[in-house]
Amino acid sequence: MSEHTGTINLGLTIIKGRRSIRKYRDTPVEEHIIMSALEAARLAPTARNVQPWLIGVVRDKERLAKLGSMADTGSFIKDAAVCFAVFTKKDHKYYIEDGSAATMQIILALQSFGVGSCWVAGDKKPYAEDVRKLLNVPESYTLLSLIPAGYPAEVTVPSKKELDEIYFMEEYKEE
Ligand SMILES: Cc1cc2nc3c(=O)[nH]c(=O)nc-3n(C[C@H](O)[C@H](O)[C@H](O)COP(=O)(O)O)c2cc1C
Q1: Which domains are seen in the chain, by residue range?
Q2: pLDDT, tens digit (0-9, with 9 covering 90-100), for 55-86
Q3: With a 6 A CB cut-off, is 27 part of the ligand 1 pocket?
Q4: Is residue 99 exposed (0-12), middle (13-18) or buried (19+ Cβ within 10 Å)?
Q5: Ligand 1 lined by 73 (C-beta under 6 Å)
Q6: Is the pTM for the entire model greater than 0.85?
Q7: Is the dihedral of CA 116, 120, 11, 110 positive or negative?
Q8: pLDDT tens per residue, range 110-154
Q9: Ligand 1 atom 12, closest CA
Q10: 124 has which bridge partners?
Q11: Among 9, 84, 113, 155, which is disulfide-ready with 147 (CB 3.0 to 4.6 Å)?
């Protein structure tokens, strides 16, 4: 139930149910779910509708292990059923924003099927170039994020700020 309207809002339920999942069951993620996640990325907003992305899908165990060894903060990629690699055109002014929008669409689409995932940093990371080369992606693109995914084996619930700590109405006032 939505706290504000008293009605069930499926989109909000999916958003509220999402957590970063870093431990996965040894079960494949169905093809139609992977394709739905890609379709969600395709529909993401982009500055001037440039759609500057290229998204890799990795399921090969050896390649997942290589990604896990490259990404120092994403070693758990090796245990994922699938890993999406979101690339964006590096000469595009809004490459970070556009790639981030696609990343979140993928994460939330996966969540809508009960598939857990985790945003693993790509942009600004020293391994971004190695990942691009591993996946044979043209030089004009840069890695924005890696999204390992799978059915959750463990869910951790991090603490979040309270709502009234993060917003203001109309004009900010010091307490
Ligand atoms: C831009 C960005 C980069 C992130 N990079 C990593 C990462 O490299 N490794 C990781 O385990 N989690 C990474 N995360 C996930 C965050 O750690 C996670 O979202 C945060 O701890 C809050 O937890 P929650 O997603 O469960 O709400 C990243 C998230 C964002 C938005």
Answers
A1: 17-151 (3.40.109.10)
A2: 999 999 999 999 999 999 999 999 999 999 99
A3: no
A4: buried
A5: yes
A6: yes
A7: negative
A8: 999 999 999 999 999 999 999 999 999 999 999 999 999 999 999
A9: 120
A10: none
A11: 84
b or e along 17-28 (b: 16 or more beta carbons within 10 Å of the residue's beta carbon)?
ebbebbebeeee
- Ligand 1 centroid to Cα of residue 175, in Å, is 30
Contacts of 65 (CB under 8 A, 6+ apart): 78
User: Which residue has the CA at smallest separation from atom 19 of ligand 1?
Assistant: 20
Q: Which tokens go with 132?
A: 């691009």
Cα 64-68-74 angle, rounded to 5 deg: 125
Backbone phi, then psi, for 162, in 5-degree steps?
Answer: -70, 155
Closest residue (by CA) to atom 29 of ligand 1?
Answer: 119
Of the candidates 11, 34, 7, the residue with the CA atom closest to the CA atom of residue 112: 11
CA distances from 91 to 88, 104, 137, 165 (A): 9, 22, 15, 36
Give the distance (Å) from ligand 1 centre to CA of residue 89: 23
Question: Residue 88 in contact with residue 95, Cβ under 8 Å?
Answer: yes
Q: 24 CB less than 6 Å from ligand 1?
A: no
